[in-house]
Amino acid sequence: MVTIYQGRAGLSRRELLKRGSAAGALLIISGTAVLSTGEAWGLESTALKPETVATLIQLARDIYPHDQVPDRFYAIAIKSHDELAGKDPAHKELIENGIADLDRKAGAGGYTGLGWEDQRVSILRQIEDTPFFQAIRGGLVVGLYNQKELWPIFGYEGESYSKGGYIARGFDDIEWL
Amino acid sequence: MPAPYGLNDDSVVVIIGSGAGGGTLGNELAQKGIDVVILEAGPRIEYDDFINDEWDSFGQLAWLDNRTTGGGWRVHKDFPNLPAWIVKAVGGTTTHWAGASLRFQEHEFKTLTNYGKVEGANLLDWPLTLTDLEPYYAKAEDKMGVTRTNDIEGLPGNNNFKVFKAGADKLGYKECHTGRMAINSADRDGRMGCQQTGFCFQGCKWGAKWSTLYTEIPKGEATGKLEVRPGSHVLKIEHDDSGKVTNVVYADKDGKMQSQKARIVCVAGNSIESPRLLLNSASAKFPDGLANSSGQVGRNYMRHTTGSVYAIFDKPVHFWRGTTMAGIVRDEARHDPSRGFVGGYELETLALGLPFMAAFLDPGGWGRSFTTALDHYDKMAGMWIVGEDMPQEQNAVKLHGEIKDKYGMPIPDVWFTDHPNDVAMRNHAYKQGMAMYDAVGATRTFPTPPYPSTHNLGTNRMSEKASDGVVNKWGQTHDIKNLFVSDGSQFTTGAAENPTLTIVTLAIRQADYIAEQMSAKSI
Ligand SMILES: Cc1cc2nc3c(=O)[nH]c(=O)nc-3n(C[C@H](O)[C@H](O)[C@H](O)COP(=O)(O)OP(=O)(O)OC[C@H]3O[C@@H](n4cnc5c(N)ncnc54)[C@H](O)[C@@H]3O)c2cc1C
Ligand code: SF4
């Protein structure tokens, strides 16, 4: 059974499915997994609710929005919270409560139901000093930007020793000055 | 052949720490035929094993034992358990350092005289002058292979430098070049030239950059007079009834307690661990800690007035390619109070990889204002500000009241608040740096706050009078004749220049003094 993630309570599965396929599916929840049909990846949640994981992915993007970066990098970046939640009930509570609070503040459609980034960010500004927000943001600094596969998107070339450094590979190739 | 010395051998000089100060002192003494044991808390990792990856390298080499911070500085909020970036490994922070090697200016040895009394600052003249140090500076520059000294050519300018230089020219700065760097511009001293890999802060995998790990230490070991014992974390220095130090207690690599006897003990653990060790060595005879009759141990903690300026251009720069810090403007290093502050600062090129840029550009920052900066990472240029900060008594390394390390010793608690002079200087430097980039067409600039301290200074300061400081002009403690301080914690004031050349210079000079005193049998 596949449901399309909308983050909105009160809609039947059938209705969700219908809407989702019409919208060209974003994140789908199937059992305990969050699936991305567009990007062809899935993230199995083990401790957190799959809806929570899906919201975390949106939250991660709202904190560090890079439009050229696909969802899977954000999914990898927040995965550690699911793992930690499995070992530490206090962490699980922190995350579940934090997401529930976001949904509450967002009103009827929940956090992901808010269509504009600005609307979501204005809620985040209210909670940016909370331990929940700081745990998510702090984890992302390394969790997101330390993914080697992400670096080429920003042009960063990473390790260079094995290629003999840049002495013959453009350390001084600037031309526009 | 490294010489293994017995734990009960009380003829050895024991040096605590193998970085710029300790590693240099160890080699210098060994060259004179003196028996030396260096106890180093960290492991020995040779340069082949360094990692071209910012976080992995940090995990491999940095000092990660718990520390706390307090005071008004932003580092306290952004990095509450990481007041400083220091290395815990053989070679100390000379594995991660960038290599900028500048002599102090003459007036910087006499700040109280030249700047006058500055309210809230604990300024003091050094008990020595530039003339005293000049012959030793020359030796240090030769030893370290500093470019633009000893007929060593400067490094070639990388992309980041070219942008920096174009801006400096537009602003009319006169002294701008690729720096005096302890990085080989060509083969020298059995080490190869810089390959422009761009990972100076992660340890140079080519050995082109000077580090005690692969220069001083193996040279000392080759004399048969130096033993380096990695994984040896010193917890306490002990003394006899007469007040002379006799031995040090350390946890060995298996965590077992050992005691090494010593004729002389030299503390070179960098400016957080050195005062911590003296304070943790308190005894019935010295209840406030060793060498602390002045009450100055741990005080006057300095970290340089720093900050960075990054800029985005409309075309690529690729600033991470090549040497991390080979570029300098020295025009603002003068003392010119008409700018609204005493002392001066240097501007030096700096590049960070994407992972560190994300962590340090605006710690705690988020949202599009932050991410659109990183979106143009490949079009960024960057520089670092390093200026003289004011020594203040209340800026201090203290022992934590409650938290202890795994050996049961109180951890260090590092307090720092900017002096108004520091703030005025930083703001001036931000403006100048941003103007440099604006002059070459920057579309956006970022005045970036200080990182965890890479320059840690002043916590066992040098003074003429025993009541004003901890050590005399030889780094010998005023209170205990056979106890020395051999790192940057000796600095009376910080000057505008990066500190390591001066640390090495003082260590070479101290070695001469120790050898002299030993042969005169006065210690
Ligand atoms: C990223 C970076 C870039 C830098 N760039 C420059 C630059 O361009 N120019 C410049 O001049 N300076 C630079 N520095 C600063 C420079 O590295 C330090 O000033 C210098 O290494 C300090 O020398 P030290 O001997 O005081 O201490 P360190 O070199 O830090 O050595 C101290 C050693 O003591 C050991 N130790 C500490 N406590 C104990 C104990 N209790 N028992 C046993 N061992 C102990 C430590 O593990 C360490 O190995 C940079 C630093 C960093 C982090
Ligand atoms: S840029 Fe040069 S000095 Fe720096 S790490 Fe690479 S080879 Fe070594």
Describe the overall structure.
Chain A: This is Gluconate 2-dehydrogenase subunit 3 family protein. Chain A: InterPro entries: TAT_signal (IPR006311). Chain B: Belongs to the GMC oxidoreductase family. The complex is a heterodimer of chains A (177) and B (523). Chain A is of the alpha+beta class and 177 residues long. Chain A has helices at residues 13-23, 50-63, 71-87, 89-106, 117-127, 131-145, 151-154; strands spanning 3-4, 27-30, 33-36, 41-44. Chain B is α/β, with parallel strands linked by helices and 523 residues long. Chain B has a single domain (13-519), classed as 3-Layer(bba) Sandwich (FAD/NAD(P)-binding domain), CATH 3.50.50.60. Chain B is built from twelve helices and 17 strands. In chain B, α1 packs parallel to α7, α1 packs parallel to α12 and α5 (130-144) packs across α12. The complex binds flavin-adenine dinucleotide and iron/sulfur cluster. Residues 16-22, 39-42, 85-89, 92-94, 96-100, 201, 232-234, 268-270, 273, 277, 325, 454-455, 487-488, 498-500, 503 of chain B line the site of flavin-adenine dinucleotide.
Task: Summarize the topology.
The complex is a heterodimer of chains A (177) and B (523).
Chain A lengths: L2 E2 L8 H11 L3 E4 L2 E4 L4 E4 L5 H14 L7 H17 L1 H18 L10 H11 L3 H15 L5 H4 L23
Antiparallel strand pairs in A: 1-2, 2-3, 3-4
Helix pairs in contact in A: 2-3, 3-4, 3-6
Chain B lengths: L12 E4 L3 H12 L4 E4 L14 H8 L6 E3 L3 H5 L32 H5 L14 H15 L14 H13 L4 E2 L38 H7 L3 E4 L3 E7 L5 E7 L5 E5 L2 E4 L2 H11 L24 E8 L15 E2 L15 E5 L4 H7 L7 H8 L4 E8 L9 E8 L5 E6 L4 H20 L4 E5 L34 E3 L14 H20 L4
Parallel strand pairs in B: 1-2, 1-9, 2-5, 3-15, 9-17
Antiparallel strand pairs in B: 4-11, 6-7, 7-8, 10-13, 10-16, 11-12, 12-13, 14-15
Helix pairs in contact in B: 1-7, 1-12, 5-12, 6-11
The structure holds flavin-adenine dinucleotide and iron/sulfur cluster.
